[in-house]
Design brief:
Helix content is about 40%, strand content about 15%. With about 300 residues, the chain is an alpha/beta fold. The two termini are about 40 Å apart. The strands form two sheets. It has a five-stranded parallel β-sheet with strand order 2-1-3-4-5, sandwiched between helices. A five-stranded parallel β-sheet has the order 7-6-8-9-10, sandwiched between helices. About 20% of the residues have low confidence. Helix 3 links the parallel strand 3 and strand 4.
């Protein structure tokens, strides 16, 4: 029975593609095959999939590069992605970058099907580029004119953004203010501690790739020392409500898109990112939400805005 949901399979092994195509077609999915990331991007220009299943190691364009290119385009940014790969050690890195699911080859068929169903039916249909442009115009039209910043005593959620990309800071501020938050932006690392002591924020968003003199994990350690906090495990990826101390500050990490900074990230950078995140968690960071995207940001941090 057809369900009209399109799934794009990207793998350079024809046998894997054929097996998945037969499996998913039998479940009623409209399956589109591609044998490398470049071919997948070309096919997506004609029809957007509702879900993507991708390998990592492929010719022409590997899964890591494909995922970065996918997230650059706002039309594609919210398409769920499942990575299926034999490179198990890259699971934490891909999950930290925002991949929805990472399954090790050979994966359990039922686990794959369960994840596909969970991801593909969690939201409405994928919108077209024309619909996206119209929606974006409506969003921009609804953004209120800048207002004088309210006093801290207003009772609204107090937020500090720490990063050195002005465009990202402005966009993030607008989104948080629309959620009813009081937002202050700090671009100089030497002023961060003083700002936290003065404002007393509930949440601090910190860019892990800001051009700081000190490593971001060292900055987090210094900030963490301001108030007693819980010790985070090195493998923690998501803070639970029961683990959060009432009234204490959460430090949420994000990454400025490499295009905004004029820096091209390579596959070799993945291990450095993973090691940095582990040190940040050890020093008191709460969560890493991946590369900043104006369309996905609020949904990723909603738990900290309640």
């Amino acid at each position: 029975m057809e369900n009209n949901k399109r799934i794009l399979i990207i793998d350079d092994e024809p046998g894997v593609v054929t097996t998945l195509e037969q499996l998913l077609s039998a479940k009623g999915y409209d399956v589109r095959p591609a044998y490398d990331g470049q071919e997948a991007l070309e096919k997506m220009k004609k029809d957007l999939p509702h879900l993507i299943i991708a390998d990592i190691m492929m010719p022409k364009m590997d899964g890591f590069t494909f995922y970065k290119e996918l997230k650059k385009n706002k039309v594609n940014a919210d398409i769920p992605v499942i990575i299926v790969s034999a490179r198990n050690k890259m699971a934490d890195t891909f999950l930290a970058l925002g991949v929805d699911v990472f399954l090790a080859k050979p994966c359990d068929v039922q686990e794959l099907l369960n994840n596909i169903e969970r991801l593909i039916f969690r939201e409405g249909p994928v919108i077209t580029p024309t619909e996206l442009v119209t929606a974006k115009r409506d969003i921009v039209k609804d953004i209120p004119a800048p207002q004088p910043r309210p006093e801290v005593s207003s009772g609204k959620k107090k937020i500090i953004i720490f990063g050195d990309d002005e465009k990202t800071n402005q966009d993030m501020s607008k989104q948080l203010e629309k959620q009813g938050c009081l937002v202050a932006v700090v671009q100089e690392e030497g002023k961060l501690v003083a700002a936290i002591q003065e404002i007393g924020p509930e949440v601090v968003f910190l860019a892990i790739n800001a051009g700081t003199q000190e490593p971001i994990d060292t900055i987090i350690s210094r900030v963490n020392a301001l108030t007693p906090r819980r010790k985070m495990g090195t493998v923690a990826k998501q803070e639970t409500p029961s683990a959060r101390l009432l009234g204490k500050m959460s430090m949420v990490l994000y990454k400025i898109e490499e295009d905004a900074k004029g820096i091209k990230e390579t596959t070799s950078d993945l291990a450095d990112i993973e090691n940095l995140l582990e040190r940040c968690y050890e020093n008191g960071a709460s969560k890493y939400v991946g590369a900043y995207s104006e369309f996905a940001f609020i949904s990723k941090v909603q738990e900290y805005l309640k």
